[in-house]
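Reopening closed ticket. The problem is back. First fold of the pair:
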Amino acid sequence: MNRMPRVRSGDLLVAMPALTDPNFDRTVVYVVDHGGHGTLGVVLNRPSDTDLLEVLPGWWSLAAAPRTFHVGGPCERDTALCLGVGNPPPDVPGLRPLAQPVHLVDLDADPAVTGAVLDRLRVFAGYSGWGPGQLTAEIAEHAWAVVPSQPADVVSETGVGLWQAVLRRQGGSLAMLSAYTEDPSLN
């Protein structure tokens, strides 16, 4: 019996070749929230050209390279979400733990206080969202692989390199997909 993977906050969704939506081609999505209400996540590997220094100068020095906004997904691109990695003491204002040591960061908090307890962070313009049951249906259609995250994924290299690295570390058939060419007719 082929069981459906259980999705939890802190998991990664890795776009599979069966996914035809260009918004998610070769993306890695960090799941921020998942439940009966649906799923919210951010694409980790889509940097934009907008420098954080121009918009959020207080957070710029804490951002992982490249210090730009990342396109978190096709929903509400004028909304900013921030994920930070660190091991802060309890009750630091502006932090909501997701999957230790990853936190959702309130960008209205004081970066001198909240940012001081984080190692690195990444800021996302927009997010990825699925209604109730939508992600489950897409997983059943083999559009996504659900895999465990590592804290470094949130602030690591961006672009297709992250997609390949996450697939490679899974082993087996998923690792083989890391070499999947954008144009299979070239094989």
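Second fold of the pair, where the issue appears:
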Amino acid sequence: MSVQGSGIDEVNAIIHWLMLVLFVGWGGFFIVTLIKFRASKNKKANYGGVQTHVSSLLEAAVAVIEIVVLFGFAFPIWASRVNDVPAPSESVHLRIIAQQFAWNIHYPGPDGKFGEVRPELVDEQENPIGLDRESENAEDDFFTINQLHIPVHEKIRIDLTSKDVIHSFGLPELRVKQDAIPGMSIPVHFEATMTSDEFLKTTIGTARQGQGLEIACAQLCGLGHYRMKGFLTVHNNEDYQAWLDEQAEYLLESEEDDDW
């Protein structure tokens, strides 16, 4: 359910078909060899070896197919994932800071600019990303924990990092996966093609019925790895703006409470 997902699925399908052909081919060859060259039929060994080059030609053909798949499909897809990262001004730009065992999601607010984050300001209860509210552009920033909200049919750019160990940010249904590494900010980008409600309709009658989109950690990151799970909500544009407005109201109310 992402623009990038179809290409990845296509490569996976090609590779699996190739592996099936190789499995059947080499498995059949192995069985024929066992029958044809069994000891009861070959009382004396033939030291002449293979007299034709069929096997060499088959191996060369397999190698050529694998090279075509690698250079013709896999490399271009990987290059688009690495090189075609949209600029912050051309996308919905977010930050995700992973930690044991949660996903902290930083939204820049209406101005589209992030405030500064400082390690010394990190408070696991009140300020898990260390946001400096006194810094420029930070006044309208807000963050969520394990709740990622994005609009449909919009380019999404996420700058991914980690506070502690290596995690792996995964959105399986969107074919998105990227390691989050301490000390590095790694961009990952994608574009959803259907809302969460539309996705749920496709699961009716299947084992996935009623189960939404999850953020998975695909890297063993400690004893609590099993519970490092977040949730993705894909809105239409109107609902996404309504959600942003709601978060802005919460932020304003919390600031008023702090002033009091």
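Update: turned out to be a display glitch only; the data is intact. Helices lie at 5-36, 54-83, 196-202, 237-259. The beta strands are 92-99, 102-107, 142-145, 147-151, 156-162, 167-171, 176-180, 186-190, 213-217, 229-235. Please close again.
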